[in-house]
Amino acid sequence: MQSIISISGLSKTYDGGFQALKRVDLDVAPGEIFALLGPNGAGKTTLISIVCGLVKATGGSVQVGGHDIVADYRAARSLIGLVPQELSTDRFESVWDTVAFSRGLFGKPKNPAYVEKLLRDLSLWSKKDERILALSGGMKRRVLIAKALAHEPRVLFLDEPTAGVDVELRRDMWRLIRELRDTGVTVILTTHYIDEAEEMADRIGVIRAGELILVEEKTALIAKLGRKELILQLGAPLAEVPASLARYGLELRREGCELAYVYDGAREHADLAALLTELTAAGVAFKDIRTTQSSLEDIFVDLVKERA
Ligand SMILES: Nc1ncnc2c1ncn2[C@@H]1O[C@H](COP(=O)(O)OP(=O)(O)OP(=O)(O)O)[C@@H](O)[C@H]1O
Hints:
Shape: elongated
Largest sheet: 6 strands, mixed
Bound molecules: adenosine-5'-triphosphate
Keywords: ATP-binding, Nucleotide-binding, Transport
Order of helices and strands: EEEHEEHEHHHEHEHEEHEEEHEH
Protein name: ABC transporter ATP-binding protein
Helix content: 25-40%
Distance between the termini: 35 Å
GO molecular function: ATP binding; ATP hydrolysis activity
Family: Belongs to the ABC transporter superfamily.
Number of strands: 14
Radius of gyration: 25 Å
Oligomer: single chain
Strand content: 25-35%
């Protein structure tokens, strides 16, 4: 399928000489939820800002829906909605006016039925005549989304959509993002919350110091990089791992009461069976057995650490 966003060799060096993006390549398919993860200052906002036309790249190119974001700026920009982290303007305007005005900014004809649907879908209908400044933080976030969707974009960028919101609103936002995706909107979100990416994303990109160091399907990423642990609760504490089992690299824990075997998630189960047989042969009795799988968070921390 043709990409809705195609980024090629994208670089950004800010005026002071700081290189915020280093030859980033990325293709996003229509209807995906793509999460961009990275530590503070990694370049996430810079990347989004370039695609949205707010910051000028110093190298490379970006196409949105087949339109070059520089040569064909208006066509590209009309396909994009951006939900920034904070609402900075329109504080005195009503919810309705600010959303309807955003639509007008893109030269779209008035469409009260669409604006009404948008406000209803975002549970903002009862607030349509209220001034923005009178809304709660959660409602303001919804207004930001409504504004971003007012011109019916095909791609929605959300910059840290749930930073600083409570658990309930966070769940609401996640539901909303999925619903948008179900209507065919492509969603690209940046987040510091690994669990958010784990919950929401189809694909994950990890950016570090301006480089996109990894792009992978979420499930493949967890399967490929995730580690599993087999933990045996021993019948009696062991002082040391029997020499005959050395090749497994077993680890004794909890004062010799537990034996852990760490293996990579993609590995066949065959050597687990061999391990258990060899344990029995070595006279190591166990009374319980459990496995754990590393989360996306563990993987992310390892990744960022590795390249540090
Ligand atoms: N206008 C600017 N002039 C100079 N440097 C800048 C400018 N804007 C951003 N930077 C630098 O570029 C780097 C990337 O910033 P960016 O905001 O893209 O990171 P981020 O990944 O979005 O971070 P955060 O997670 O903290 O929002 C940072 O080191 C930042 O200080």
